[in-house]
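Morning - coenzyme A inputs below, output right after.
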Amino acid sequence: MDVFEPSGVRIAGCGSCVPEKRLTNDDLAGMMDTSDEWIRQRTGISERRILDLDKGESQFLLATESLRNALADADMQASDLDLIIHASVTSKMTCPSTACRIAAELGAEPAGAFDLLAACSGFVYALNVGEAMIRSGRYRSVGVIGCDAMSTAVDYSDRSVAILFGDVAGAAVLVRDEDPHRGCLYQTLNADGRMWPSLYIPDDESDLPVGVEDSGSRMGTLRMDGREVYKFAVGKFRDVIQDALNATGLTVDDVAQFVCHQSNVRIIASAMDKLGLPKEKVYINIDKYGNSSAGSVGLCLDQLWKAGKIKQGDAIVLVAFGGGLTWASSVWRV
Ligand code: COA
């Protein structure tokens, strides 16, 4: 590979992919003891998209299509990429990484390819890593993907978890830019592993936290202390956004869009309220897609991008939190 000087970074294109199949609140109410009213009030979700496994849909295909779409948006070929970073906690295989299979499917070899695990923070983690690798001068173009098929990881007899999640993929293509002021102005990647028992997917009983008996849910499905995660997220969203503004010297007025992980509309609303973020600057699509884990922020970014709500020169703030517990922010001059 050529050696480059440190450079700026540009988002050359965005993409996403959502399954056709809808799972509505009423569908869930037919499967478990819940109601459309309860779910809407507590979460803001009306429906989510889920894979149709009978039609051969898969997490891998969803992720692949999102990057294919982002490459088309960037007017680039997969062979133009130096690296693919794919974030997910619902990939079926760990060897090879799903990123390697995506690279093969799209024809990106010999681009580097690896998977990254940061649960719902996955897209922002991947974006930050990809941006830093281009900025360092070592890479010219990186495809980043956040994709989860949470329908394959929830137990549909556990109403406290099943109502929240859906399946989507979001992707972005990052490229080197001559302007060193372009790209990520500030980024954070954080985790507090001591809080892992709040949100985890055990493979078998040895993965259960000390003192936790098997709750009866299927192994390989998500366990969550909803109240604990809620408390954490409400504080963290506010703090992370405030930190991003303090560090960059930007005010709320300077920011075109706050692109937030879609976890629960009440969590987002609480941050808006405490920080005085206006409605038109905080994109919300959780009503239609639920919480799609690593797919969520990338899908929001793509929808805002395609709707022309993010323009060249705009400042945007991306934030997410999730299992780990992890959290991350990314402030961009687009
Ligand atoms: N339908 C109807 N009732 C439900 C229910 C459902 N799907 N799920 C829980 N309940 C019941 C509970 O059993 C409880 O009943 P009780 O008062 O008789 O004990 C009552 O509703 C309140 O439960 P609680 O867990 O306190 O509800 P909540 O207001 O905290 O909402 C979540 C639950 C999961 C929606 C909320 O805690 C949440 O969004 N947490 C964050 C989760 C998250 O973001 N996870 C992903 C991180 S990336």
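Note: The chain has one domain: 1-334.

O.
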